[in-house]
Structures are given as C-alpha cells and as structure tokens.
Amino acid sequence: MLDVFDRAQAREAELRQDALAEHQRRAAAVLGQEGDAERWRELSAEFCEGTGCGAPIPDRRRQLMPRCRLCVDCQGRKEARLKRSAG
Ligand SMILES: [Zn+2]
C-alpha cells in the first residue's frame, strides 16, 4: 500500500522534474545561456555532490539540467527541506 503510494510520488516527482527542466531550458534561452545545453558535460557534476552520496548522475539528467550538482534523490531531499523551512 505504502509502496504503491511511494511509486506514485516518485513518478510525480519525475514529471515535475521534466517540466522544471523544460522551464529552465526556456529561461536559459531568455537569459542568454543557451550554450549551457551544449556544455552540459563540463557544467553538470558527473557524481552527486550531496553529503555522503556521490552517486553517478545519469547523463539524461545532466543534459536536461546543465549545472546540476545533485542526483534526483538528493535534489528531492533538498527541495523537501526547503519546502519545510519555507512553510
Ligand atoms: Zn545524491
């Protein structure tokens, strides 16, 4: 029961991430950072910089989000933390 719920949440987070990546891509174009998309290999971290994590970040994520430094898990945790402290 909880497992199904967790999976639904993970899927939702994934969809949100894609929407966010698309939004950031458009914002980058407006800000004149289009080059980021081509330089994702140097801009994005190859391994997660989250404390005690170091998980490899999938190329797809690095491509979608140039300049990303965290894996999906750490990013999610960070956002949850920010949400908690904001609310
Ligand atoms: Zn991580």
Automatic annotation (TrEMBL):
It holds the Pfam family zf-dskA_traR. Keywords: Metal-binding, Zinc, Zinc-finger. Residues 48-79 form the Zinc finger DksA/TraR C4-type domain. Signal peptide: none annotated. This is TraR/DksA C4-type zinc finger protein.
